[in-house]
């Protein structure tokens, strides 16, 4: 499940209204999230959680669930 | 001057001369690169050409390639050329593009361009079958070339003539109304040879590229040029680069690449987004030219890029620029190798009135970056509204004559006649000349360029116009500057009777989704009350007037 904190930081960065984000969603299904905003969304997530992703970790993300898991792993909550 | 030949004949000549030289190297993050030597590439292309022929592909057939950017792509493209058939690289559909829009768009394109074969991947089969099953489809078959076994590499002689069409280049868009630029073997080879001279190309040059191959810059500058010149090109899938922009810099450093072409946003994108820890050991000292092209060149973007990467050995004199379009094969003008693109500070108001006048007042200045001098075989002129050539420093529409001019828009004599008259291609771009150098400062058409990709406001307005709650025909779309990314962002103003906050929020989301369905990211939405939009003299809502009004703060963004 996508945590409220992750959902908020993503939607805030994309400047889109309050919508539900699900594990199985692809980034391209979220309004405003495209190849150009991808890196800035991930940078906002890094800043929010005080973590750093490696380029390869970013490339292997398939959907929002993967991102949630990576955040959990990095913050030691997973 | 070499004798006219076909692309295939040129490639064969290079492979025979130096069979073991590296032709194409494909990099993937975290993996060893795949290397195609000239001989291996040509052998695989030959094998594939035989299989294509067995499937019925023949001379003059238009073969659309809808495949991901990976090492198997290159020999396939060349195999089509070997048969004298016509490759046309199409964008691999973004998953957010609505299936109905995709089918509609591809059907329209197939009709207009006369696509005969569709070469794709199994994953797209159900989608593309909807196109080929349509009653009047021109597409004769869907082929899955990645699944084919290879036969023998017995020699293949290309029976095309140098004046035959060798490729089709589609303008971007998803509506099916895209124009297809048809180029001959002669035009492409003449162009890349002339362009090679303009950039001082030598046998030791190495091209690095993350560009998509459905775009003229990626296809001509970063693929056809190195193949025809017999130098190495190093390719990266654009989807990988955009997720990890440091990849291009790592590849340049590892391969000692000397040349790259980049749309303006890429300079900002790399300066802003590359992670410091991914630059360990990266040395950019090998770079000879980074050519900024395919969207307006911004002085700030060059400055930002240089500031970030000069510590890694990037020299200021590498920051080059060119002015290019698919209709002239690629480049019309290019800055000189060995010096940075010149920057002028001209008075913004005077420029608006059509005159380039220098100013020292930074607050009144617009900084214009040179796109260089015409390349060999190209003549440029700026003309006024009556088609009369204007003097240096006067802004006019840029018209171009080129030895490597396109053969016209495929199956579209009307559009061809509009764009190409008496041998001059009317670019629709505004610019001025000073001291032999060209400065492009605006454009006649309302096209929006986002990250090097042309978007047509009409397509966006049509998509948004059918959103429930939006008043029919009462939408305008236009580009606004995105200073951070050094490109444009799409802005929409839509009239609606919905006034409550929750309703407007929903409406805004629906407008964003309507953009997504045609693969357009709408950056900003304004919801206006009925009759807010001012009409132009043509009776339709004016993009420029209404754009100026929202930028002047007349309406709050949602």
Describe this structure in words.
The complex is a heterodimer of chains A (78) and B (558). By secondary structure, chain A is mainly alpha-helical. Helices cover 55% and strands 0% of the residues of chain A. Chain A has one domain: Orthogonal Bundle (Non-ribosomal Peptide Synthetase Peptidyl Carrier Protein, Chain A). Chain A is built from four helices and no strands. The longest helix of chain A has 15 residues, at 35-49. Chain A is globular. In chain B, strand 23 (448-450) and strand 24 (453-455) form a beta hairpin. Chain B folds into three domains: 7-19 and 28-188 and 197-203 and 214-233, Rossmann fold, CATH 3.40.50.12780; 337-443, Luciferase, Domain 3 (Luciferase, domain 3); 448-551, GMP Synthetase, Chain A, domain 3 (2-Layer Sandwich), CATH 3.30.300. Chain B is globular, with a radius of gyration of 24 Å. The longest helix of chain B has 17 residues, at 38-54. Classes of the chains: A mainly alpha (78), B alpha/beta (558). The interface between A and B is medium-sized, with 23 and 33 residues.
Topology:
The complex is a heterodimer of chains A (78) and B (558).
Chain A: H1 4-14, H2 35-49, H3 55-59, H4 64-75
Helix pairs in contact in A: 1-2
Chain B: H1 7-17, E1 22-27, E2 34-37, H2 38-54, E3 62-66, H3 73-82, E4 86-89, H4 99-113, E5 115-120, H5 125-132, E6 141-143, E7 165-170, E8 180-184, H6 185-198, E9 206-209, H7 216-229, E10 232-236, H8 238-243, H9 246-255, E11 259-262, H10 264-273, E12 289-292, H11 299-309, E13 319-324, E14 331-334, E15 343-347, H12 348-352, E16 365-369, E17 373-374, E18 378-383, E19 396-402, H13 413-419, E20 420-421, E21 424-434, E22 437-443, E23 448-450, E24 453-455, H14 457-465, E25 470-482, E26 487-496, H15 501-517, E27 522-528, H16 543-551
Parallel strand pairs in B: 1-10, 3-4, 3-5, 5-6, 9-10, 11-12, 12-13, 26-27
Antiparallel strand pairs in B: 1-2, 7-8, 13-14, 14-17, 15-16, 18-19, 19-21, 20-21, 21-22, 23-24, 25-26
Helix pairs in contact in B: 2-3, 4-5, 6-7, 10-11
